Amino acid sequence: MEPIQQHPEIAAYLAVDEAIDHEHPVVRETVAALTHEGDDAYTYARAAFAYVRDTIPHSADSGDPRVTWRASDVLATRNGICYAKSIALTALLRARAIPAGLCYQRLTDDDGTNPVVHGLVALWLPGHDRWARVDPRGNKPGVDAQFSLGAERLAWAVREELGEVDYPAVHATPPEAILHALRHARDRAELWRNLPAQL
């Protein structure tokens, strides 16, 4: 699936907003900790991906009831669902002038029921000349997402026969349905009951 840039200006994928708050001190401190002398954009992007994937547990795996939606809060609390972790990785990339946006899949249970939207990140690295999707959700048994600019190594491959969908749009800002769910949930249990089923 070829990601499609939703906003015509690449500058939109470097911008700061309320959720992707990459000028926040917590984000800047994390960037500094991940940056090593001589790192090129690829090396930094891979390190930022691994950091979000591996050191910030997905709250469904950890059982953490807190709901985060700003990048700075995700990094400060080390907690978030896929949407929040994707926002955090996007902020870490933009803080190093790497264009990054948000992508989504519609996934279901193995019988095609209980559809839910799953969050990913798309990034544009120098010399790569196209958007590449990565999934910072966090690995667990049966899930092995990896940083790859070639063949995608996402947490889940879409099963079209079950009605699953790869949404091609690369969003410069989180879609309203995603932000609404995150902002209005008192805890993860409430968020789980109100996750968007489609975009």
TrEMBL record:
<protein>
    <submittedName>
        <fullName>Transglutaminase family protein</fullName>
    </submittedName>
</protein>
<feature type="domain" description="Transglutaminase-like">
    <location>
        <begin position="30"/>
        <end position="136"/>
    </location>
</feature>
<dbReference type="Pfam" id="PF01841">
    <property type="entry name" value="Transglut_core"/>
</dbReference>
<dbReference type="InterPro" id="IPR038765">
    <property type="entry name" value="Papain-like_cys_pep_sf"/>
</dbReference>
<dbReference type="InterPro" id="IPR002931">
    <property type="entry name" value="Transglutaminase-like"/>
</dbReference>
